[in-house]
Amino acid sequence: MHEYSLVEALVTRVEAEARKRGALAVHRLSVRVGELSGVDPELFQTAYETFRAGTLCADVPLTLTRVAASWSCPRCKTPIARGAILRCPACDAPGKLDDGSDALTLDRIEMEVP
Amino acid sequence: MCTTCGCGDTELVPVELHEKILAGNDRAARHNREHFLESGVLALNLMGSPGAGKTAVLEATAKAAASKGWKLGAVSADLATDNDARRLQKAGIPSKAITTGQACHLDAELVHRSLHDFPWQQTDVFFIENVGNLVCPAIYDLGQAANVVVLSVTEGEDKPLKYPVMFNAADLVLLTKCDLVPHLDVELAKVHDALARVMPRPRVIEVSARSGQGMDAWVAWLEELRDGIGLGAAAHAHSHAHEHSHDHAHGAEHHAHVHSHAHAHDGGHAHDGADHHGHSHAGGGKHDHEH
Fold this sequence. Notes:
The complex is a heterodimer.
Chain A: H1 3-20, E1 25-34, H2 41-51, E2 62-67, E3 71-72, E4 79-80, E5 96-97, E6 104-113
Parallel strand pairs in A: 1-2
Antiparallel strand pairs in A: 1-6, 3-4, 3-5
Helix pairs in contact in A: 1-2
Chain B: E1 11-20, H1 23-38, E2 42-48, H2 54-64, E3 72-78, H3 83-90, E4 95-99, H4 108-115, E5 125-129, E6 146-152, H5 159-162, H6 164-168, E7 172-176, H7 188-196, E8 204-206, H8 215-228
Parallel strand pairs in B: 2-5, 2-6, 3-4, 3-5, 6-7, 7-8
Helix pairs in contact in B: 1-4
């Protein structure tokens, strides 16, 4: 259950950004969760809803965007089939994880500024 | 203020950050990594299920690496008890327990704090034995030079497929308890196959802490890694006095750099068990780049 410590880091970051910009309120958070990020999106959502009480994010909805994991060849870009050996079927180079597959990023904060 | 007419209404602005949620941990990890490199310490993050054999491998490492003359050290994390640290201490590895309470993983800050009253600077190889858990520790960079995942042959051939995040983060997999293979219905080829489906460059060493099988290959891997990040014989800069002879002839050709990408060079080898050779890479860089 490391989701709680991640949510804590998220809320702390949002509060810092809101302070920096003198925000009156925060309206929405958008977070991207890659399939290989090591985070279960539903657990993350639940952890957020529990943890946000009493913080600046108390009434702020969280939008999670899931990104499926995929691998491809770094040389010839040939995609590697899901579940296959992680080598390029065309040129045998070791595969590379595509962008976003392991992402756990705070993409956007919508906030109300004076 | 509303910029259309200046009426004084508040404005709703989207602030684009695209920032890693673990950015804070990664900063702390970079700090740890700098400390380790400056002090000439090879730090390793040892992860695996509870009971996979993390502590036993370290106990056996003390014996297997004795001829290298390295000073070993360890911090060992568990939710409760300092049993593992005491076991390591007994095996000749100065150790300290990190009791995490309810926390299921170590983070860079916890490791940093644990270093404050432990003479880690005097070690050559420093093991961070993580909490026994195949899930949560995987995503926390601690400042290690490489991640070593311990997987025992009793855990099931498809375990890598079930925990892809952990094995994807591994620079090396130590397949432990191999002395038990004759007593089990386990096909090691299937374990290697599963690893090749979650690791683009699977590096596996089959070991047994009990029989000593594979321990030389593991020690050689450690030595290669030390050389690769400039901590080998030629770059032996730190000042602690201990007697050892470096019997390997290489060293001068190694440069003190850390690869900022994971596994820069690939020998083209498949997962071929204990018989590994060749290149070394500092896998800690894996956490420093965007995939």
